[in-house]
Design brief:
With 124 residues, this protein is an all-alpha fold. 50% of the residues lie in helices and 0% in strands.
Length: 124
Amino acid sequence: MRGARIALLALAFGASAAAASPQRAVPGAGWSPVPVSGRSGEQIFHRYCWDCHGDGPDHPGTDALQVKYHGDPPARLDQRTDLNAPYIIHVVRHGISVMPSMRKTEISDAELKAIADYLTRKRR
């Protein structure tokens, strides 16, 4: 019985340590190549947006944009040059298609502005 408690405690500790990790360790769905702790637009994008708009399979936002645009413009948001900040902010706050809206309690105005600045950096 004591061994089971220790194993359960170790499992719980390992799960909490993994959740606190600033970067996911295993490539695949949801894995971000950029550390997600930090305040840069790129880091905030990877924290909030990468799971759906990342690279590779199992990213529903990227998959949907690939079907819609067939690669022109690119399906990955961070590779596009046609986005503007007001549009990005509107879509995040109000949602579009299957993308839900995100409240200010989920992503602050400052974080959203940093994401919009990051995604529009190639337009400047």
